[in-house]
Design brief:
Blueprint: H1 18-37, E1 41-46, E2 58-61, E3 64-74, E4 81-87, E5 101-104, E6 107-108, E7 113-114, H2 118-121, E8 124-127, E9 138-140, E10 154-161, E11 172-175, E12 178-189, E13 194-202, E14 214-217, E15 221-226, E16 229-234, H3 237-241, E17 245-248, E18 263-268, H4 271-276, E19 283-289, E20 301-304, E21 307-315, E22 332-338, H5 349-363, E23 367-373, E24 381-387, E25 398-399, E26 402-405, H6 411-428, H7 431-465, H8 468-490, H9 496-512, H10 514-522
Parallel strand pairs: 1-9, 2-8, 10-18, 11-17, 14-18, 19-26, 20-24
Antiparallel strand pairs: 1-4, 2-3, 3-4, 5-8, 6-7, 10-13, 11-12, 12-13, 14-17, 15-16, 19-22, 20-21, 21-22, 23-24, 25-26
Length: about 550
């Protein structure tokens, strides 16, 4: 049995070293992979570093992490901070001149509530996903998140307004009560003194925007006291809390073609102004009004036979008439216009020429302008053009290039003039003398009433002083005597024949004394003095002749 040991040579490298070697290789591969796949570093200018932490605050695109903040430092001019972030290689193609960055944090306002999810997860830097444009690595962050998420289908518009009322990013665009878009940005052009807005209309509502679309303001509640009365306009509940606009196509206008991206539109104060904006041409005329224009406002309608054909452009045009308003006979110049489109003519030079020629002919005949009250509640006035019967022929008058339309007083002024004339006549009456005479008559009537009252008192005393009992006794005696007379007659007193004979005797006596009465009637003194009158000639009978 062989017990010799076998000697083997030892290994030069221990297997224990395999573990760190593998670890080094894996680490090197990971470093190489990280280096090969890491994206570029970018700088983002931001107003402050609020909510940003190094190696913690992510950069997200469509809520997907595509980078992380690596460094924060102040800008050289101390006007903000520079944030350096590492972007993943997979998102490197998104770093273009059209890419935008903004800070996402909790935000609450009248028009929006956003970023509430960051209350738990923390703020982050959002990045728009846009791969169009040139490559870029230095960016300026937006002050606020964009209203419209990148990639949203729709159309962008450019709006302008010269109104003092301004809109903010996030204010709604309303159509028939539905929110169809928002304002994205606003900036003021100092040279033009006009505010421009970037707005976005979402799909499919962007198909409503055509070349003839008009935008107007519907913010809050609008109260307007016009010549036609009180108007109240409002949009939706959202526009009551924030500002907003709406849009539409004026009545009678064709829609037109769809607009392209970044088309330009004007925001008008109200629907009426937006509707009138389609009329490009108008004939202007001047009125010289001798009465008060209180209640007449710029924009008041000009009507012909009850149809609106124009509006008031200006009141008391300084350059139209010489002198000043304090002069007694100073006429107030009012400038109006007439739209060819509102008299059913084309809004062209031919239609404008037709209006001017017709008006010139009518002005030399019987066309006159007058102020009329459109509403008793508001006292608003409007201009009414009418043909006046038996109007005096007027020569055409032109001032500063404007044809002058003759004016006539309205019915209210005429009634006022007649009332003034009546009051003048009343003032001319001798009222003082009439009052004195009336006062004298009243005093006489008072004295007469006192006299009547005294006479009434005397009559009452007289009636009171009459002895009614004595009168009754006398009447009873008379009745008793009458009764005795009748009784005597019935018991054998004077008979009827005797009474008749007595009456006949009295008549005969009267006949006998009748000549005496005639004589006394002719000569009342013949009974005392005798007269020489011959005796009465007695008529004789005519003798018969044989």
């Amino acid at each position: 049995m062989n017990n010799e040991a076998q000697v083997k040579p030892t290994s030069r490298i221990s297997k224990v070293w395999l573990i760190p070697i593998v670890a080094i290789i894996v680490g090197a591969w990971m470093v190489f992979y990280q280096w090969q796949n890491q994206g570029p570093l970018i700088t983002i200018e931001m107003p402050s570093a609020t909510g940003i932490e190094v190696n913690k605050t992510p950069v997200k695109a469509r809520d997907l992490d595509v980078g992380i903040v690596k460094k924060i430092e102040l800008k050289p001019d101390l006007d903000g901070v520079l944030v350096t972030a590492r972007i993943d290689a997979s998102a490197e193609h998104l770093l273009t001149e059209n890419t935008e960055f903004w800070m996402v944090s909790p935000r609450i306002s009248f028009s929006e509530v956003s970023g509430l999810n960051t209350l738990l997860s923390g703020s982050y830097i959002a990045m728009s996903a846009d791969d169009t444009g040139k490559e870029q690595y230095n960016f300026i962050a937006l002050d606020r998140p964009p209203v419209t998420p990148p990639g949203t289908p729709g159309v962008h518009l450019t709006l302008n307004s010269d109104d003092e009322f301004a809109y903010k990013p996030g204010d709604p665009i309303i159509y028939k009560g539905f929110k169809v878009g928002e304002f994205e940005d606003a900036y003021f052009n100092i040279e033009e003194r006009v505010v421009y807005y970037d707005a976005f209309i979402e799909a499919p509502y962007h198909k409503l925007i055509t070349q003839n679309t008009r935008f107007w303001n519907v913010s809050g509640v609008r109260f307007q006291l016009a010549s036609s009365g009180l108007k109240v306009e409002t949009g939706s509940l959202e526009t009551l809390l924030a500002n907003g606009i709406t849009f539409g196509i004026p009545e009678g206008v064709q829609p037109g073609e769809l607009v392209v991206e970044n088309a330009f539109f004007t925001i008008y104060p109200d629907r009426e102004a937006a509707s009138n904006a389609r009329y490009k041409l108008a004939a202007e005329y001047l009125l010289l009004i001798d009465e008060s224009v209180r209640g007449l406002t710029v924009g008041a309608p000009v009507e012909y036979r009850g149809i609106e054909i124009g509006e008031v452009l200006a009141i008391n045009v300084v350059s139209a008439v010489e002198g000043n308003i304090l002069e007694e006979n100073y006429p107030i110049p009012v400038l109006i216009n007439i739209y060819p489109g509102k008299v059913r003519r084309q809004d062209t030079q031919e239609g404008l020429a037709f209006v001017k020629e017709t008006m010139r002919r009518w002005l030399q005949q019987d066309l006159r302008a007058t102020l009329r009250m459109g509403n008793l509640l508001t006292g608003g006035l409007y201009i009414d053009l009418q043909h006046v019967k038996n109007a005096e022929t007027a020569s055409l008058r032109t001032i500063n290039g404007y044809d002058v339309i003759p004016t006539v007083s309205n019915e209210f002024t005429q009634i006022t003039q007649k009332a003034d004339a009546i009051l003048d006549k009343i003032n001319a009456l001798p009222l003082e003398g009439m009052v004195h005479d009336v006062r004298t008559a009243l005093l006489d009537m008072k004295e007469a009433a006192a006299s009547v009252e005294a006479t009434s008192d005397d009559f009452d005393e007289l009636v009171t002083s009459i002895d009614a009992e004595a009168i009754n006794d006398n009447l009873n005696n008379v009745l008793v005597s009458m009764e005795a007379l009748l009784k005597n007659y019935s018991e054998g007193g004077l008979s009827q024949s005797e009474i008749k004979e007595t009456v006949d005797t009295m008549q005969e006596t009267l006949r006998n004394i009748q000549p005496l009465l005639l004589q006394l009637n002719k000569s009342p003194n013949s009974l005392i003095f005798s007269d020489n009158q011959n005796s009465d000639i007695q008529p004789k009978a005519v003798k018969n002749r044989e």
